[in-house]
Specification:
single chain, 632 residues, Rossmann fold, 20 helices, 22 strands, 37% helix, elongated, ATP-binding, Ribosomal_Su5_D2-typ_SF
Length: 632
């Protein structure tokens, strides 16, 4: 080892800096490799910038960064061919933790170009190495002419050694002597996984070992292609990811190909948004709209957050509005630091602006697609509507942007904008008080008899069967003036839209009371409230409904709707409407005896339950037996 030229103490504000680094500053030890490779990239990018400014006259040559490990020697080495440092610069930039070379670099070249774009801090990030190493060496040679290489060694205490060294080319080697607790980082697969996670899109090529590739090697005697295996450098990153390019030079195939690179086993996305902002904050990225349908919880945490192409996290809750967490893709902003915290994201002004900008860009894109090709937009609506409805529920401003392209779909698979639908139903679905009544179904199959009854009155029925539609209905109803939204089975058809018209009853008051008593006895359930109604003879003899309010609250409770949770524990209460004008009601009144009346009433009631999939177990078995007896 070279003669010790200088010994000293690292200039820090506390003697306990390394325990603090290990315990608090970095919660995840694997981050050390990201930090060291990021520093190597910064040093390389700075040299490239100096070269472009004429401040470095030498040949750039190969600027590839290399990560190596030696399991026997227990070392990991990160090497770059960037700026390098003199001994004095090592003392200045490494020993003084609180100081960053970035400030000086920007100050020197601020008038020549936007230098801050390639500035990184060679400060606390470097010290993350001591999370996994009990000794760290730095061997560096400056790009400046006539400078000597230097070696810095520190064992994790506040003492260091600085000596001269031998190094052929410019750049820096950081050598970590891995401690006994960090054996995992001496495994190739572990290091490869970290590099692919954090460094996959860094702007300088990063070599990690070699790989075997099959390449063409002429033809054999029969004219068939021959192949041979060659060993090549294993470059673990794509230095020019799609989001860093100009949208004008990209085609649809490029975006789809990049999506497959990010999510290898996914279906093609519906469409995408290329973000490219430089004022009042810096932001690039590509956000993809995946095919979500109704199963969206598992889709979250698919957006990756980067800072200057260095991966930070895929938990972007405070950067991306909650309703857009279902999107996939990449966001890159140098305004977000690498070692970001939740509290930072929640309080930073730039982060809030980024969130607002993304919301606006998504709304603009959807508006553009709607205007450009309405037919194609309708085809995509079943996939897109979950984003739009989630936005309307959770973001007050988003509704104002989205109301013109929000579509309502009816049971006949026709699509309408909010204004178009209002115009369609206003003539026939306005009640006696002047309120417009929207009718909907959550299950067109189970609620078909109610849908058909509504259609017989020329009412239109919307299909709202999505996972978010229960919340959407509540929000949507509040947005519209003099409007009610009712599920098609929440009332008998004559009461869904109250037009103050009443059909004459063929029953006397006395007969009505008799029929009510017969059904109450047959049903024998306090949760069922029986009422006699004068309906058309074409309507069903018995109709079972749950009020819109009760059903909606209970559905909200099932979805974990906060203040509605108490509703989940309340018993189901139903209204049972007996059609006094139906022939079966007359038949029940004229039955031979009380037992026969009860049996017929029970059969009519069970048919109503059956029509709504509410007849199960022993009650269903009894109904089948009774039906066989009655037709036998």
């Amino acid at each position: 080892m070279a003669e010790v030229a200088e010994k000293g103490s690292i200039s820090i504000h506390t003697e306990n800096i390394f325990p603090i680094i290990k315990k608090f500053l970095y919660s995840d030890h694997e981050i050390f490799l990201r930090e060291l490779v990021s520093n190597a990239v910064d040093a390389t990018q700075k040299l490239k910038k100096l070269s472009s400014l004429g401040e470095f006259g030498g040949e750039l040559g190969d600027v590839r960064i290399e990560v190596k490990f030696d399991k026997e020697k227990r070392t990991i080495t990160v090497s770059d061919k960037g700026l390098g440092m003199t001994g004095e610069e090592i003392k200045k930039y490494i020993n003084q933790i609180a100081f960053s070379g970035a400030t000086e670099f920007v100050e020197k070249f601020k008038d020549k170009t936007d230098a801050k774009d390639i500035i990184g801090k060679f400060g606390l990030g470097f010290y993350s190495a001591f999370m996994v190493a009990d000794k760290v060496e730095v061997v560096s040679k400056s790009f400046k002419d006539n400078t000597e290489a230097a070696r810095w060694i520190c064992d994790g205490s506040t003492e260091f050694e600085l000596t001269s060294a031998t190094k052929e080319g410019r750049g820096t080697d950081v050598i970590l002597h891995i401690n006994a607790d960090s054996d995992e980082f001496l495994e190739e697969s572990r290091l490869k996984g970290i590099l692919e996670k954090y460094c996959k899109f860094l702007p300088v090529e990063i070599k990690f070992g070699t790989k075997d590739e099959s390449v063409e090697d002429g033809e054999d005697q029969d004219g068939k292609k021959k192949f041979k295996t060659v060993t090549t450098d294993n470059i673990i990153n794509n230095p020019a990811p799609l989001w860093a390019k100009s949208p004008t030079e990209l085609k649809d195939e490029d975006y789809i190909s990049f999506y497959k690179e990010l999510y290898p086993f996914s279906e093609d996305p519906l469409f995408w948004i290329h973000l490219n902002v430089d004022y009042p904050f810096n932001l690039t990225g590509i956000l993809y709209f995946p095919k979500v349908k109704n199963d969206f919880e598992i889709q979250k945490n698919k957006i990756q957050l980067y800072s200057r192409q260095v991966f930070i996290t895929d938990e972007v809750k405070d950067v991306v509005p909650d309703f857009l967490m279902l999107l996939h893709g990449v966001i890159d902003s140098p305004d977000i630091p690498l070692n970001v915290s939740r509290s930072y994201l929640q309080s930073d002004g730039n982060v809030k602006k980024i969130s607002q900008h993304i919301t606006k860009k998504v709304a603009d894109k959807l508006q553009e697609l709607f205007k450009k090709d309405r037919v194609d937009f309708e085809k995509k609506w079943d996939d897109v509507n979950i984003f739009v409805k989630y936005g309307i529920i959770s973001d007050e401003k988003f509704y104002d942007r989205a109301k013109d392209f929000t579509l309502l779909k009816n049971v006949d698979k026709q699509y309408f904008t909010i204004e178009e639908y209002k115009e369609k139903i206003s003539a026939n679905q306005t009640d006696k008080d002047g309120s417009l009544v929207y009718l909907y179904t959550t299950d067109a199959g189970k609620q078909d008899s109610f849908i058909q009854a509504a259609k017989n009155k020329s009412y239109d029925v919307l299909l709202l069967d999505g996972v978010l539609d229960n919340h959407f209905i509540n929000t949507f109803e509040q947005k519209l003036e003099k409007t009610q939204i009712k599920r098609v089975d929440s009332e008998i058809v004559d009461k869904l839209i109250d037009k103050d018209t009443k059909m004459e009853s063929v029953l006397s008051k006395e007969d009505e009371e008799k029929v009510k008593a017969i059904f109450e006895k047959a049903i024998n359930n306090k949760a069922m409230t029986v009422a006699i109604e004068s309906l058309s003879t074409d309507e069903l003899p018995v109709v079972i409904t749950m009020s819109e309010w009760m059903r909606r609250m209970k559905d909200m409770a099932k979805m974990g709707g906060g203040g509605y949770a108490f509703m989940g524990g309340m018993p189901d209460n139903y209204n049972v409407f007996i059609n006094g004008n139906h022939a079966i009601t007359q038949k029940i009144l004229k039955a031979e005896n009380e037992d026969q009346q009860t049996k017929l009433a029970k059969q009519a009631f069970d048919l109503a339950l059956l029509s709504q999939n509410m007849l199960t177990g022993a009650d269903l078995t009894s109904f089948i037996k009774r039906s066989i007896e009655m037709v036998g």
